[in-house]
Amino acid sequence: MKSRELRSVTPSSRTTDHDMVIASFWLTRDEIEKLKRWVSKEMVAVHCSTFVVACAYVWTCQVRARGWPRNHVAWFGFPVNARGRLRPPVPEGYFGNCLGICLSNAEVGELVKEDGIRAAAEVLGRAIDGLGDGVLRDVDAWVEMGKVFKDKRPLSVSRSPGF
């Protein structure tokens, strides 16, 4: 999919005191549906949700903007709701957070290809599918993983059902 097909995505940005740019981008429902159709057309049977295609789009844009070498490994992480994935399950009346983390990686060369969004969506979809009921299986390693990933400059996202 050529990037010009999504030119209507307009950023709202500002700079910070830390030499960073904070930006918000909006993808319309039609743009998301267009991405989902395009991605799933040739994709193997993996999780292909609105969240997956939006993240795949953002991830490939970020990787292109960074200009990393093609053999560099790019990382992507996001929190996942662990409530329905635990055995034994969380009690029905539980009120509180129950989150895990999902990490994915791919070579930059795969993500910057013309069909890089599709490659990113497959990687993200497989990572979600692979969680199963083991979403917290590596919880003991999360602190150490955080130290290791700090230098790898992963892209991480979170979301809120309030938006």
Structure write-up:
The protein has 163 residues and is an alpha+beta fold. The radius of gyration is 17 Å and the shape is globular. The strands form 2 sheets. It has a 3-stranded mixed sheet. It is 36% helix and 17% strand. It has helices at residues 29-41, 50-66, 108-111, 116-131, 142-150; strands spanning 12-15, 21-24, 73-81, 99-107, 155-156. Helix 2 (50-66) packs across helix 4. It has a single domain (3-156), classed as Chloramphenicol acetyltransferase-like domain (Chloramphenicol Acetyltransferase, 2-Layer Sandwich).
Quick take:
The protein is of the alpha+beta class and 163 residues long. Helix content is 36%, strand content 17%.
Helix count from the secondary structure assignment: 5
Per CATH, the class reads: Alpha Beta
Q: Give the overall pLDDT as a whole number.
A: 80
Give the helices and strands as they follow along the chain.
EEHHEEHHHE
User: How many angstroms separate the termini?
Assistant: 27 Å
Stated plainly, the CATH topology is called Chloramphenicol Acetyltransferase
> CATH superfamily, please?
Chloramphenicol acetyltransferase-like domain
Can you tag this structure with a few keywords?
163 residues, alpha+beta, Chloramphenicol Acetyltransferase, three-stranded mixed sheet, two-stranded antiparallel sheet, 17% strand, disordered N terminus
Question: What is the element layout, followed by pairings?
Answer:
Layout: E1 12-15, E2 21-24, H1 29-41, H2 50-66, E3 73-81, E4 99-107, H3 108-111, H4 116-131, H5 142-150, E5 155-156
Helix pairs in contact: 2-4
Pfam families: Transferase
GO molecular function, one term: acyltransferase activity, transferring groups other than amino-acyl groups
Keywords: Acyltransferase, Transferase
